[in-house]
Amino acid sequence: MTVTIRPLDPLKDAELIHPWVTHPKAAFWMMQDAKLQDVEREYMAIAANPHHDAFIGLVDGEPAFLMERYDPAKAELVGLYEPEAGDVGMHFLVAPADTPVHGFTRLVITAVMRELFADPATARVVVEPDVRNKAVHALNAAVGFVPEREIQKPEKQALLSFCTRAQFDAAVGAAI
Question: Rounded to 5 degrees, what are φ and ψ at 131?
């Protein structure tokens, strides 16, 4: 499978991602009741933020996941931990599928991490999933994330976790 990642266009892509972010399996994305205009507004705000970016991931040319990259020193985690140079925050969401493919989500998170570490300035990826999201904790561990501690964000109790380039390489068994 070939994975490519392109910038998200809030106006053109809102219709595409609306069913993704409101799907029952996306409960931890916290947009369950969002209308199309809410999704447009949210991603317009991200597009306007110089410290936050959103992307659409394609697998074999078909839109398959949403990825966000942010500067945790300036967005999402300000005041909740001591950022280091080279820290990059990440969120990802796999589109719901009629027929799930075994290993697909792991393929996606691996591709997301490769994309983030393709930037030589990225030293460490930071994530803050909901503490109740056991499935994503397992995926994070599979690509090298190590939980540090729980933190209280305004919208959730989160598990602050980090993954260095070396931890990622060791976990996936291949250098970038």
Answer: -60, -25
CB neighbours of residue 12 within 10 Å? 10
Which token pair is 153? 């964000």
Q: Identify the residue with better confidence: 26 or 48.
A: 48
Query: Cα–Cα distance between 69 and 47 in angstroms, integer?
Result: 11
Q: Is the pLDDT of residue 175 over 50?
A: no
Label each residue of the chain as H, E or C. Answer: CCEEEEECCHHHHHHHHHHHHCCHHHHHHCCCCCCHHHHHHHHHHHHHCCCEEEEEEEECCEEEEEEEEECCCCCCCCCCCCCCCCEEEEEEEECCCCCCCCCHHHHHHHHHHHHHHCCCCCCEEEECCECCCHHHHHHHHHCCCEEEEEEECCCCEEEEEEEEHHHHHHHHCCCC
101-145 per-position pLDDT tens digit: 889 999 999 999 999 999 999 999 999 999 999 999 999 999 999
Q: How far apart are CA 146 and CA 59, in angstroms?
A: 27
Q: What angle do CA 125, 130, 132 make, to 5 degrees?
A: 130
